[in-house]
Structure formats: C-alpha cells, structure tokens
Amino acid sequence: MDSTIVVKLVLLGDTAVGKSCLVVRFVRDEFFEFQEPTIGAAFLTQTVQLDDAAVKFEIWDTAGQERYRSLAPMYYRGAACAVVVYDITNPDSFAGAKSWVKELQRRGDANVVIALAGNKADLESRRKVEFEEANAYAEENGILHLETSAKNANNVKALFVEIAKKLPKNRPQPEREAFPLAAPPQENRSCC
C-alpha cells in the first residue's frame, strides 16, 4: 500500500540564483526568463512518487534579498529538507550558500536533509564555481549536491527525487503550527 509523506521544504540562497525558477520548473514545468524577485516567500506544493511511497513537498520559496534574511528562520523552522541554491556563474552566491548551510546545520532541525543546488548549469561558458569544488564541500558537510538548470530542466526533478529518497519513510506528518503563517499565502507567480 502506498502512503503519502507530507514534508516541509525550504529554498534558501542569495537573490537572483534562480530559486523561484527551480521550484516553478519543478511544480509547473515552466520557465520564465525575466521575473521579479520574490517578496517574503512563496508557497507551492508538488508530489514525487518513489517506489515505496509518495512524498508531497510543501515548498517555501524564500526571498534572497538581504533585507529578508532575518525572516528565514521562521520558514526553515520545522523543515524536513532544504535546497540551498547558488549560481554556478557567481562565486559570491556560492559563499552565500555555504553561509546558509552553516546556519541550517546550527539552527535548523537536527535531521534536516540539505541539498546544495548549483543552478544555471546551462551557462557552462560563464562558469565561475567548479563542480569539483562544490561537490567536495557537499561531501565534507554530508549534504546532497547536484547541478541544475531551471532553464532547460536539467536535474530539476532529480534534485527533488534525491531529497525524497533521503527522507525517513516513517516521518511524522507536519503540524500546521510549524508553518510561519496560519494559512499558506496565495501562490507567487514570480520566478527568479
């Protein structure tokens, strides 16, 4: 008998790394080249089917601008998993991603599954963050690492499938008060 596991997932990373584009590609299989930045956070859901269970992700896509950083803990509190996104063409965003990983390890749920996503892999000719460097960092920190492209959909679904595989299958269902708002806000239609 298949069961559905409902988990809270938070996307973190600097502004303009493509967090919203990744989640919109995953949820609706759409990509928009130019999008307004997310204000606060957006809420979306999507389910991944594994062999033994379905995992429904309740996704909080957080704003990357520095002025919203102080709000992040209320979004990652109670999260079973987190995707920390950086842009492979922007070394500062990789440094920012490391800072998010450190914060999650220090202040997040003790068993949070963390995935590091090197987004914009379609821009290989402009690469500034080498795959090997990011992969070594991920291995040292015991986290997943994939390079993705929201633009061409490369590794987007795979990223969420790999996270789903890492989650404990007997995980308790999240309690609604673990979410920062009483009810999820209206879905934000912006992308990057």
TrEMBL record:
Keywords: Nucleotide-binding
PROSITE patterns reported in the protein's UniProt record: RAB (PS51419), RAS (PS51421), RHO (PS51420)
Origin superkingdom: Eukaryota
CDD domains for this protein: Rab5_related
Gene Ontology molecular functions: GTP binding; GTPase activity
Statement: the UniProt record of this protein carries the keyword Nucleotide-binding: yes
Keyword set includes Nucleotide-binding: yes
SMART domains the UniProt entry points to: RAB, RAN, RAS, RHO
Start and end residues of each stretch annotated as Disordered: 171-192
NCBIfam families, per the entry: small_GTP (TIGR00231)
Protein name (database record): Small GTP-binding domain protein
